Amino acid sequence: MSQDTSGELEKAQEREHELEHVLRRTDTNPRAAQRAERQVAIMFGLSMLASIGFVAAYVGISKTASINIPIIGSIGLLNLALGLASGLGLFLIGAGAIHWARQLMSDEEIIDERKSFAADDQTRAQVVEDFQQGAEESGFMKRPLIRRTLLAAMALMPIPAIVLLRDLGPLPETKSRNTLWRSGSRIVQDISYKPIRPEDIPLGGLVASALPADLKAIEEEQGTLNERAKASIILVRMAPDEIRSQQIQDGDYQGILAFSKICTHLGCPIALYQQRTKHLLCPCHQSTFDLADSGNVIFGPAARRLPQLAITVDGQGYLVAKEGFQEPVGPSFWERG
C-alpha cells in the first residue's frame, strides 16, 4: 500500500469518528436566543448589585456584629457579608460568561494541523481573520445588552478592592520621616538598655544594635515595636584619619560613628561589619555600605546611603545624639522627596 493511500485511509477513518454538528435551540429559535441573552445580562446585573452590596456592607455593618450559624457557631457578620458579596460578584461574571459561550457563541469545532512556530505573512493574516470572525460570531458587538452589562459588571468589580484599601489604616504623613532621636537622646544598648560610654567601644569595635533611652517607656505605654524599627542604630569605631567623609560635619565622636541599622533597600536589619574595609553588608540582598565614606552604597540594590546620626557625649560622659536623623531612615517610599 502506498504512503498516499495510507494517508487517505487514515483521514477517512478520522472523518468517520467525527461527530455531526447539532444545532442548539438558540441557533434556530430567535426567542430562545433572546431569552439566553437576558439570562446572561441578569447575571452580569446581579454581579453589579453584589459589588454595590459589598460597599454597603463594609460601610453599614459594625465590625463587632456577629451571627450564629448551626454547626459552625458564631462568626463575624461583616466578614460573612463581604465574603458572600465578593464571591457572588465574581461567580456571576464567570457563570454569565460560560452561559454566553455555551448558548450564544459559535460552537463549531475548527481543526487545524500543528505548524512550525515561525509563521509566514499569510498565516498571520489568517489568524487575524479568524480572530475577527470569532469576535463576530461571539455576538459581542451585535448583542448590546450583554456587552453593556458585562462592561458595567467588570467596571464595578474593582470597587470592593479599592474600598478595602481603607483597612490599611491612615496615611503615614510624616511618621515615616521622623524617629525618636532628638538632641540629647542618650544612646543605650538594645535589650539591656545600658547607657554607652565612648570607652565601651574599642578601636575597630562594633555595637550591633543601639536605641534611644526613652524608647523603653514608649513601648511599655503603647505596646508597639514601630518606633524600635525606625530608631535602631549601629555604632562603629575607627581611627579618625580613616574617616574619609561624613554626611554631617563633625558627626562622629572620637572616631565613633552612628548609622541607621535599617537597610535602605527593603528595610532588613544590618550588622555584618568588616573592620578592615569599613564595609557594612546587608544579609538579605547583599547591599554594601562604606561607613568610612558617609555610608554610601558601593554594591547591591540599595538606592541611597545609610542615614548618619550625629553624636557627642553628655555631662556624665555617655554617648548622646546631637540631633535627629537629617533624612528618612529605612527603605525608600513614594512620598520621599
Secondary structure layout:
Elements: H1 3-17, H2 25-28, H3 30-60, E1 66-69, E2 73-76, H4 77-103, H5 121-138, H6 144-156, H7 158-164, E3 187-189, E4 206-212, H8 215-222, H9 226-231, E5 233-237, E6 256-260, E7 272-274, E8 279-281, E9 288-290, E10 296-299, E11 308-309, E12 311-313, E13 319-321
Antiparallel strand pairs: 1-2, 3-4, 4-5, 5-6, 6-11, 7-8, 8-9, 9-10, 12-13
Helix pairs in contact: 3-4, 3-6, 3-7
Based on the model shown, name its key terms.
single chain, 337 residues, alpha+beta, Rieske Iron-sulfur Protein, 5-stranded antiparallel beta sheet, 4-stranded antiparallel beta sheet, 9 helices, 13 strands, 38% helix, 15% strand
Textual characterization of the structure:
There is one protein chain. The strands form four sheets. This protein has a five-stranded antiparallel beta sheet. The chain has a four-stranded antiparallel beta sheet with strand order 7-8-9-10, with no helix packed on it. It has two domains: 156 residues, no CATH class; 135 residues, Rieske [2Fe-2S] iron-sulphur domain (Rieske Iron-sulfur Protein), CATH 2.102.10. A hairpin with a 4-residue loop joins strand 7 and strand 8. Helix 3 runs parallel beside helix 7. The model has no long low-confidence stretch (mean pLDDT 86). With 337 residues, the protein is of the alpha+beta class. The radius of gyration is 34 Å and the shape is elongated. It is 38% helix and 15% strand.
